[in-house]
Amino acid sequence: MTSISNVSAVPLSRPRAILFDWDNTLIDSWACIRTATNATLRHMGHQEWTMAETQRNVARSMRDSFPAMFGDRWEEARDFFYATFRAIHLDHLDPLPGVEALLADLAERDIWLAVVSNKNGTFLRKEADRLGWTRYFGRLVGATDAAEDKPSVAPVRMALEGSGLEPGDQVWFVGDSPIDMHCALNAGCVPLLVRETAPEPGEFEAHPPRRHLVGCDDLACLVRELLVPIWPE
After folding, report:
1. Are residues 181 and 74 in the same domain?
2. What CATH number is associated with residue 209?
3. pTM
4. How far apart are CA 195 and CA 26, in angstroms?
5. Residues 75, 24, 145, 35: what is their CA dihedral angle, to the nearest 10 degrees?
6. In terms of C-beta density within 10 A (0-12 exposed, 13-18 middle, 19 or more buried), how is residue 69 classed?
């Protein structure tokens, strides 16, 4: 497992719930996001983004980011983006390595699993259905499902509805971006950064993760270290 300089030395508690980001935490969706975003930027008379710009700029939900980008025309941009994305997103579902095995294992361990995403909730649930993953999650919470989106606490609380749990040290929040770590810390959950690329200097200075793991296989190993195995080894 990989560590970074600002990772806390505080030991981890055994998780009773794990909340996942969706895009680029469980599935690789950058190509699809960039295609729909650039189509929208062209439509609105803006310059297209490189992949690096897309990865840097796409984190907040649309209702939080589009008004600043497009001003009074943000709803027009929203509708155009949704129409473009709706036409292509189910053809661009690429699970990241080890994800399905991880979800299946965690579900058998009686850990509450949920998703907290800034992707539109309708799109999120259609993608989970297409992948056959809906059965793993107690809740799938997307943008506009709660009163506010990430990094607000509101979608975290919605994701825990039905679990009997409150945000705390036994609730892990797994994501790939600063907004995920921000959301986790706002809610009082354990922030875990899971992505292959190393954090850039200062990227997580304001909201540091408790651990940095390079992929879902490392996350599975971490869970096995903390939980009694289902079967004797």
Report:
1. no
2. 3.40.50.1000
3. 0.84
4. 10
5. 20
6. middle
How many structural domains compose the chain?
Answer: 2
If one counts every other C-beta atom within 10 angstroms of the C-beta of residue 82, the result is 16
Based on the domain organization, do 179 and 118 belong to the same domain? yes
Question: The dihedral of CA 11, 154, 111, 119: what is its sign?
Answer: negative
Given a contact cutoff of 8 angstroms between Cβ atoms, the answer to whether 43 and 49 are in contact is no
Query: 23 with 34, same domain?
Result: no
Domain annotation covers residue 232: no
Question: Considering only 14-18, 43-47, 143-147, 228-232, which range has the smallest mean pLDDT?
Answer: 228-232
Q: 22 and 76 in one domain?
A: no
What letter represents residue 20's amino acid? Answer: F
Neighbours of 176 (CB within 10 A): 22
Give me 164's structure tokens.
């009997």
Q: Is the Cβ–Cβ distance between 202 and 221 less than 8 Å?
A: no
Tens of pLDDT, residues 140-173: 999 999 999 999 999 999 999 999 999 999 999 9
